[in-house]
Amino acid sequence: MKYGFLRAAAVSPDLKVADPAYNAARMCEAIEEEAARGVELLVFPELSLSGYTCGELFLQKQLTDACTDALLAVAKATAGKTMLVFVGLPAVLEGKLYNCAAAVANGAVQGLVPKTHLPNYGEFYEGRYFSPAPEGQFLYHLKGEAYTTFSAQQLFSDEAHPEVCVACELCEDVWAADAPSVRHAQAGASVIVNLSASNETAGKREYRKTLLAAQSGKCACAYVYCDAGTGESVSDMVFAGNHFIWENGTLLAEAPPFSGEACRADIDVGFLLHERRRLNTFAGKNNAGDDYSLSSCTFVREETPAPAVSAAPFLPEGADARSERAELVLNMQAHALARRLVHTGAKTAVIGVSGGLDSTLALLVTARAFGILNKDARGIFAYTMPGFGTSGRTKGNSLALMKELGVTARTVRISGTVLRHFRDIGHDPALLDATYENAQARYRTMVLMDAANATGGLVVGTGDLSELALGWCTYNGDHMSMYSVNCGVPKTLVKFLVRAEAERLGGRFARILTDILDTEISPELLPTDASGRIAQKTEDIVGPYELHDFYLYRFLRRGDGPAKTLFLAERAFAGKYDRDTLKKWLVNFYRRFFAQQFKRNCSPDGVKVGAVCLSPRGDWRMPSDASAALWLAEAEGL
Question: pLDDT of 177-235, one tens digit each?
Fold first, then answer.
């Protein structure tokens, strides 16, 4: 388990009601199949050895004895396999019948977990047959001299990887106000399994998903939910085999209802543990596990699963979700800016527009903010400030966008002033160094600041989150503004938002924005080539932004180290970048991220739009002199 992933599956095999031997045989077949797929945690439905719909047959000793035999057969099927399996059955303890989940691994029954909350309303009559889970720990006699633990307070962990800790609840337990999974999580369980027999009714699937997402999120755990399938009796109910796997509130996988399909996913246990360390409100009970028993067995493989991982973690999946996300983020940015304009009493907004992605987004957001406030767009003073590296394409696009938005367009040519500045400080303009570049950026910032003073306005910053992470901004140049609308937006999301606005606005707007999207990303601080095209290309210098956004997300949001990040990057960008290229830019990411913290520690106010934020007043507090040695040593040594 080198990188902290656990492969889980929920399966509802074909069954026959009241035929434990048949059902056990189908489960053994599923165990073989899922073991071949590398599954380490396998969950079957509630009362799956007997069938959930047995009714009065539950009270027959012949059925419960047969279920015990069937359980031992399933346990035997796990011998020689690296897998923890949960199966449901009725079990008798001290003359009372319980609805139980049995954990089996390494050829033996590891424990029985009785159901705590028994539904006895509507179509459910569990209170007629079963008793609720008793408090405490009991020994349960299986057959011969075999005993196992019988308790609702049980944890199952891997001997070599105790951080992988699994607990169990059954169906109605999660619907109850005091769900056992909350106590399980507080006691140390990072993965909760739920063996369920929840019949299907109109609208129930949507409610069920909401419930499970919330439970997984508030417990900062993975949640594997396995539902009874179509093999159950349909006297008064129908079962659809709804299976879900959640991770900290995010749906990793689901099986369509009535499909008979299994549900599989790779759970990032390392991320869950990181999230629990980050959330100081999680658990809070040092003795939460004192009344729990712990069963250790072997079910985690040493080889690492190859999880599916998104190459664009800041973008939602699906066209509908992306459209909704774009509108949400744009409105967050615009409303934040509108509030700052009102609070400061600013008469105007002043913004530098280069014809690049960041300033384009900032201008679109500013126009939206003025719309919210019912202010005339002419109160937006947009400055284009061509310098030594400005191309005709970017200048033309900036002026065209200003015209379409109806803002006040101003042009300030900075080359002459910067050359005079070079003479003042004794700099040779033929030397294309940091002074040559940064003098332009700082003069542009001075123009904007003074223009804001002259018009009673506020300078809107354009720099994005990715640039802040890499320190790709001139200190006291484009690094500075009076309010930064893009500081919470990574470059991949900037592109997405501009494209979304192009699609929404259409017409000439779409043509201008599309051309901006197709333009090389550049600060345009070095001279253009002989044909007047951009010569200075940002991604050739610092690396592809899609890689840096991926690295930033894995580092800040998921808590991944360099080795795990590279491992996942190889899968996310397979066929696009080779390992050496991924490693090169990963090393560069850590080097720049640590070296450039001093810029972030004095960055202006700006709106947070997502879970990853680098504000020194909010999410990311780090000393400017922190060493990157640990991260660089691991990254360079890969």
Answer: 999 999 999 999 999 999 999 999 999 999 999 999 999 999 999 999 999 999 998 88
Tokens 């299907």 identify what position? Answer: 200
Measured CA to CA in angstroms, residue 476 lies from 68, 126, 435, 466, 599 at distances of 74, 69, 13, 18, 9
Position 312 in a domain: no
pTM, entire model: 0.93
Same domain? 120 vs 52: yes
Please state, in angstroms and rounded to a whole number, the distance separating the CA atoms of residues 56 and 54: 6
Structure tokens at 30: 């599923």
- For residue 581, the domain's CATH number is 3.40.50.620
Residues forming the active site:
46, 115, 171
- Whether residues 575 and 430 share a domain: the answer is yes
Do the domain assignments include residue 308? no
Written as six digits, the tokens of 385 are 């400030």
Provide the token pair at 77. 């099927």
272 and 196 within one domain: yes
Q: What share of the chain is helix, strand, coil (3-state, %, to 5)?
A: 40, 15, 40
Same domain, 351 and 266: no
**Chain segment 143-183, per-residue pLDDT in tens:** 877 899 999 999 999 999 999 999 999 999 999 999 999 99
CB neighbour list of residue 306: distance below 8 Å, 6 or more residues apart: 266, 571
Residue with tokens 């009725």: 90
Residue 364, φ and ψ in degrees, nearest 5: -60, -40
Which domain covers residue 540, as residue numbers?
319-636
Instruction: Please tell me what DSSP assigns to residue 48.
Output: T
